[in-house]
What does this fold into?
Amino acid sequence: MKILSSLLLAALAVVAVTAEITEEEGVLVLTNGNFDDAVAANQFILVEFYAPWCGHCKALAPEYAKAAGMLSAEGSEVKLGKVDATQESDLAEKFEVRGYPTIKFFRSGTPSEYSGGRQAADIVQWLKKKTGPAAATLTLDSAKAMAESDEVVVYGFFADLEGAAAKVFLEVAAQIDDLPFGISNDAAIMGEYGVEADTIVLLKKFDEGKNTLAAADADAAAIKGFISANQLPTVIEFTQQSAQKIFGGEVKNHLLLFISKKADNFDAILADYKVAATDYKGRVLFIYIDVEDDDNQRILEFFGLTTEETPTVRYISLGEDMTKYKPPTAALTPDALKSFVQDTLDGKIKPHLMSEEIPEDWDAEPVKILVGKNFEEVARDTTKNVLVEFYAPWCGHCKQLAPIWDELGEKFKDNADIVIAKMDSTANELEDVKIQSFPTIKFFPAGSSNIIDYNGERTLEGFSKFLESGGADGGADEDEEFEEPEVGAGEAKDEL
It folds into this structure.
């Protein structure tokens, strides 16, 4: 009896703790005190670590709540939770939260990174993929319902659901989280979509509406290529909602059209843009960005553009770093656009590096002002030890560092061997020095071509000790791994 009483009390205690988890719009509000219980009580739970001041978190909030509602309405066992990482710092540290929002998926208590989109439908679809079959077994009614409810769906129709072709299809379906997949050997469903067995069908609510691929001899790469080439519109508008699909996809070459949707010639220019895009389907994404949208102003700054310079285009290639290209002509005709894209693909156009003009008083103050056009001359001067801060004017951490950096410049202004400098990396770019976050501080030692990343304390004492040690105390060679500085409010590495 005593043992039974103890077990009952323990069970009641668990219920009491679990009951403390409140909900906001169907989303569990998690804290240091209830987090472990929530994860233990739910086999599947998606958790957003957010900051109240974060613009991206605010944009996500209604979609996140909508996703929770959609899952609840379907009777799903998957739960959504959220953690205010600015208040629950122990949890943020435990799960290595470095920026906002950070979203993690917990399966039986084990965390993994969320890699889906930021729209409710994308969240739900990603979770279904992670918790259910790679492809749903279709009926005629479910096939119609899926095609109606989702922007893009992929169906595999096979004579033999246990055959090699069907297995390859399911293998691909398991690897693509942002699209719903269905599979069937039902001739009636095939007839509904006008295809025969061993055919993959991609249905979409834009452009031509349907694409097909003969699946009998298609390998995984061919199926992925088919989906990648057709799952996005021929021309897609860049928005916070479409960003994940654009930059998380397989196509890493993008042409960006900067244009006002209010412009009188918007429709005509977009029509020409679509003509050019058709030839590069699956190889280059053609994207347009509304320059009148306040959310896109940072992107204009990133490319060194003003609204007065639009409409215009820029080409980017996404590899380890983003490489930008500028067209040789301002013309936006289909032929001019296709020529620019093809020449860039063929390596005939050099990357475009932004640079401001050299200020007349660039060396008047203890902290020297660097731009793209004088960087090599100053920072690469092998007779000097040069410490450079790469900053962004809007960066909060950079603003906090500014008075310390000025003090550092003042301290070493009479030292002939040391130069303290700064460069606005939103307006100036370098071919061989890539900046991933702000502020980034790099040391260019005298008598060497090496670049040393400063990772010490951002204090006058820390910087001074680093310089006086010749870069040995507080730095790491550029090719060594180091922890990236945290990204603060509004300080995304870049809006793209």
About this structure: The CA atoms of residues 190 and 196 lie 6 Å apart.
